[in-house]
Amino acid sequence: MLRTRGLFISARQFHNSVVRPSVLDYFKFYKKKDATPETPIKDTKEVIKEIETKARDPVTSNKVVILGKHNSEFSDAKISQKALEGFVFSTWLPQKSEFSNRNTGSQPYQEVVSELLTEIFKTHVPSINASDLKLDDLALRFKLLKEVQIKFGTSIPDIKLSQLDSFDKIERYLLAKLDPKSQLFNEKVPDAVHLDPKEFEGTNITVGEYVFESQKRKEIKKLYRKAKNAEQKAIQEALNDGEK
């Protein structure tokens, strides 16, 4: 059997590949097109000369206004209105309240407070007696106390809103605050800040009287003289006992 030897012709294959630039080439040949020109650095002497020769506007000294009750801007209604330049404060408390309209002096103010407060309670909860109602519902309490503030023309602090949960408590609070014999404080006047320690009883807030430095020095001198006299008296008594 004859075998024919096959001829295998090997051919070298050629191929072309796309030239891919290296990442390093980007940093090497990259040039910023829109480069902003650098600001030339001026010499220190030149800068000082520019500052000295530059014309400046004259400095006018403005008078410092210290807020207080002695300022006519706050005590005089006409000056205050002019300073506001037409600005209007929007407040939900009326200038003339229902309580002030009823409290004409024909009856004790305690009766006026009790009658008006009873009407407010009947408006919100007509089916329950006012003295028996417990304001555990916060939405109802805040709604009722807001009307109390409007009808009586007085604001109630936030801390009191969390404490006044019954008719009796609200009535006692209003009687104490609206007492004509007590000193009234206008919260809109800067120097009329008044904090009653009784209002913060049972809380983590302590209200104390401010002691001026001059008062402290006087008290220290007083205590020093008292201690010195006691010391001299003790020395004299010891000497007298020694002579005996």
Automatic annotation (TrEMBL):
Q: Which family does it belong to?
A: Belongs to the mitochondrion-specific ribosomal protein mL50 family.
Keyword Metal-binding attributed: no
- The residue stretches assigned to a coiled coil in this entry are 213-240
The scientific name of the source species is Ogataea parapolymorpha (strain ATCC 26012 / BCRC 20466 / JCM 22074 / NRRL Y-7560 / DL-1) (Yeast)
Name the record gives this protein: Large ribosomal subunit protein mL50
InterPro entries, alphabetized = ACP-like_sf, Ribosomal_m50
Q: Which GO terms describe its cellular component?
A: mitochondrion; ribonucleoprotein complex; ribosome
Where in or outside the cell is it found? Mitochondrion
Any single Pfam family the record assigns to this protein: Ribosomal_L50
Q: Write out the entry's keywords from A to Z.
A: Coiled coil, Mitochondrion, Ribonucleoprotein, Ribosomal protein
Is Coiled coil a UniProt keyword of this protein?
yes
